[in-house]
Automatic annotation (TrEMBL):
<dbReference type="InterPro" id="IPR001977">
    <property type="entry name" value="Depp_CoAkinase"/>
</dbReference>
<dbReference type="InterPro" id="IPR027417">
    <property type="entry name" value="P-loop_NTPase"/>
</dbReference>
<protein>
    <recommendedName>
        <fullName>Dephospho-CoA kinase</fullName>
        <ecNumber>2.7.1.24</ecNumber>
    </recommendedName>
</protein>
<keyword id="KW-0418">Kinase</keyword>
<dbReference type="GO" id="GO:0015937">
    <property type="term" value="P:coenzyme A biosynthetic process"/>
</dbReference>
<keyword id="KW-0547">Nucleotide-binding</keyword>
<keyword id="KW-0808">Transferase</keyword>
<comment type="function">
    <text>Catalyzes the phosphorylation of the 3'-hydroxyl group of dephosphocoenzyme A to form coenzyme A.</text>
</comment>
<dbReference type="Pfam" id="PF01121">
    <property type="entry name" value="CoaE"/>
</dbReference>
<keyword id="KW-0963">Cytoplasm</keyword>
<feature type="binding site">
    <location>
        <begin position="13"/>
        <end position="18"/>
    </location>
    <ligand>
        <name>ATP</name>
    </ligand>
</feature>
<keyword id="KW-0173">Coenzyme A biosynthesis</keyword>
<comment type="pathway">
    <text>Cofactor biosynthesis; coenzyme A biosynthesis; CoA from (R)-pantothenate: step 5/5.</text>
</comment>
<comment type="similarity">
    <text>Belongs to the CoaE family.</text>
</comment>
<keyword id="KW-0067">ATP-binding</keyword>
<dbReference type="GO" id="GO:0005737">
    <property type="term" value="C:cytoplasm"/>
</dbReference>
<dbReference type="GO" id="GO:0005524">
    <property type="term" value="F:ATP binding"/>
</dbReference>
Length: 198
């Protein structure tokens, strides 16, 4: 089987990570998690660190010299221009890492699936390299319950994040498959199975 690249996207709290984890655990997919890569690239000494500190100032640095991601998120989720600037600083490097990883995995030919999990799949251009794009959707009620319980997010923070993300309708329009994540893990697995045999 030729390597299949699947992009998994959706708004905050939709369950992208749950779908990616199922792909890894059940199908042996190699995961490319753009949030994790971005966090690594923002660490002291990494390629994006100085760019971000120069732009946002030393006020975002903690006592050990690392970027305090909670301070940074407080700034960018209330200022869409600064969020766009942050994405412009970090995501070209994240994308280069993802492309290098895909090239390596294609050459090794040891996995059937590569999953790119990212909220910015469409905006950052990952869609162009994906064989399939799966949109993970969830009702706003379920999203709020999950984000409040799992991350301690207030309704205000959730709304602030959502206003800076693509609308759910646009994400669905750009997808080759939709996964509804209002139910159980077993229901998600069934939806994944159907998408994989399409």
């Amino acid at each position: 089987m030729a390597l299949k690249i699947i992009g998994i996207t959706g708004q905050v709290g939709s369950g992208k990570s749950t779908v990616a984890d199922i792909m890894k655990d059940k199908y042996g997919a190699h995961l490319i998690l753009t949030d994790v890569i971005a966090h690594e690239l923002m660490k002291k000494g990494a390629v994006c660190y100085q760019l971000i500190v120069n732009y946002f100032g030393k006020g975002i640095v903690d006592e050990v010299g690392e970027i305090d991601r909670s301070k940074l998120s407080q700034i960018v989720f209330h200022d869409s221009e600064k969020l766009a600037d942050l994405n412009d600083m970090v995501h070209p490097y994240v994308m280069n890492y993802a492309f290098d990883e895909i090239r390596r995995l294609t050459k090794e030919n040891k996995v059937d699936y590569v999953v790119i999990e990212t909220a910015l799949l469409i905006e950052a251009g990952y869609k162009e390299i994906c064989d399939e794009v799966w949109a993970v959707t969830v009702s706003s009620k379920v999203r709020k319950e999950r984000l409040s319980r799992s991350r301690g997010y207030s309704d205000e923070k959730i709304e602030s994040i959502l206003k800076n993300q693509l609308k759910d309708e646009i994400i669905r329009e750009n997808a080759t498959g939709i996964i509804n994540n209002n139910g159980t893990i077993d229901e998600i697995i069934k939806q994944i199975e159907l998408l994989l045999v399409k």
